[in-house]
Automatic annotation (TrEMBL):
Keywords: Cell membrane, Membrane, Transmembrane, Transmembrane helix. Belongs to the DedA family. It comes from the Bacteria. It is found in: Cell membrane. It is a multi-pass membrane protein. The keyword Transmembrane helix applies. GO terms for cellular component: plasma membrane. It holds the Pfam family VTT_dom. InterPro entries: DedA-like, VTT_dom. It comes from Streptomyces argyrophylli. The chain crosses the membrane at residues 12-28, 61-83, 146-168, 174-197. The keyword Cell membrane applies. This is VTT domain-containing protein. Its main location: membrane.
Length: 203
């Protein structure tokens, strides 16, 4: 069963595909970047010998994490800079959305207090990364307040996603079942993050 997964994730081009997908999903949150990262992690497990050897070149787990994390930070910064220069038009768009206005206020307070854990938590929530990046830029928060938390968020998300695919394949075998269970765990983390963000401010 893994041959079909391995053929999709084999070769050095997978790092570029992962990076582009992760970078763009700050603008298009519907992109399945998490699914792609997990699938590549599943392929990496097979190549390690943990899930059986396959006749494909397979991704390196550390390179996968670094490419996904780097692309995540770059995407955040692009969204941040676009929002920073968005001017009155973007401000009006945010003002029309109660959710975006609340997110902007909470993010500003959190970054001011040094509580940028909100940025990390939002990285796992559906569309949370987009909201946080655009709101930080629109509110003209200092890049030195935002960037370290964005880097931690990207690294945490990338490591978690790759680990899901890797260890899921070790426990369940390099099959579509393992990938499906890992994707469900990623969505579960996203639902938990969204719940926590709604329940109370993150300090």
């Amino acid at each position: 069963m893994f041959e079909s997964v391995g053929s999709l994730a084999a070769g050095p081009w997978i790092y570029a595909v992962v990076a582009v997908s992760v970078l763009l999903d700050v603008f298009l949150p519907v992109l399945p970047s998490g699914v792609l990262v997990i699938t590549a992690g599943t392929a990496a497990a097979a190549g390690s010998g943990a899930a059986g050897q396959v006749p494909h070149e397979v991704p390196d787990i550390l390179a996968l994490i670094l490419s996904a994390a780097t692309a995540s930070v770059l995407g955040d910064l692009v969204a941040y800079r676009l929002a920073w220069r968005g001017g009155e038009r973007l401000d009006r768009a945010i003002a029309r959305s109660r959710r975006l206005t609340t997110a902007q206020e909470r993010l500003g307070d959190a970054l001011t207090r040094g509580g940028g854990a909100l940025v990390v938590l939002a990285r796992f929530a559906p569309a949370g990364r987009s909201v946080v990046s655009f709101c930080a830029g629109a509110a003209h928060r200092r890049v030195r307040d935002f960037l370290p938390w964005s880097a931690l968020a990207g690294l945490s998300w990338a490591a978690y996603s790759v680990a899901l695919g890797y260890y899921g394949a070790q426990w369940l075998g390099a099959t579509w079942l393992a990938t499906g269970v890992s994707v469900a765990a990623l969505f579960g983390a996203g639902a938990a993050a969204a719940f926590l963000m709604r329940r109370r401010p993150v300090s």
